[in-house]
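Quick illustration for those who missed Monday's session on complexes.
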Amino acid sequence: MMTGGILLIIIIIGLGIISWGAFNIHSNLFLSATHQGNAENQQVALTFDDGPNPTYTPQVLELLDKHNAKATFFCIGKSVERYPYIVKQIREAGHTVGNHSYTHGPTIDLHRKKYWLSELRQTDSAIAQAIGRSPRFFRPPYGVTTPHLAKALRQSGHRVIGWRVRPYDTLESRSSARIVRTILRKVKPGAIILLHDSHSRIVPALEQLLPQLRQRGYTLVTVAKLIDEDAYV
Ligand SMILES: [Zn+2]
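Prediction with zinc ion bound:
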């Protein structure tokens, strides 16, 4: 009985660690992700997930351009196929394009290596079709990492990019003012900031955020520049 009880406790603790590792990209339990760059420079990297979006991505691009800021867009493969011209605009404006899976499906994390490899490759080829380059950077949907994904990434050779600052901007209840406040409170030199170009609050948030970051002396650069690595194969 005693041994059985101890065994059960060990199993529960083990499962706890695994799910913590899976849902916390910062644990680096299953794969190693980059969350920030060189902290010596006054540089930060804005990243936008879940695009390209025909309504919001062009507005985000316009604001970035107006404030002389560069950023990184982690695009969903099937949306890249639908809106390749937006992805081309992203690249031509000097921003970086990364891989954010092909379907971004709600059960994506339950899949095994073979499925993940096809998600990664379909997105790579959609991006390559749009901009003529295949991305090296990958951001897992929902920031969830699993051993199967880790195996797929070892084979595909993608570099996993996480984040340091996450204002949960996709939550309907988050006002643009609150998104900005969270970022300004948490931002530090070298930080990678997680945002989404898939909802309406992003536009007013950037209108407030971009001048304030500049005022604090930050230069907004691509992840490639922040970590001094090539963005494409
Ligand atoms: Zn996402």
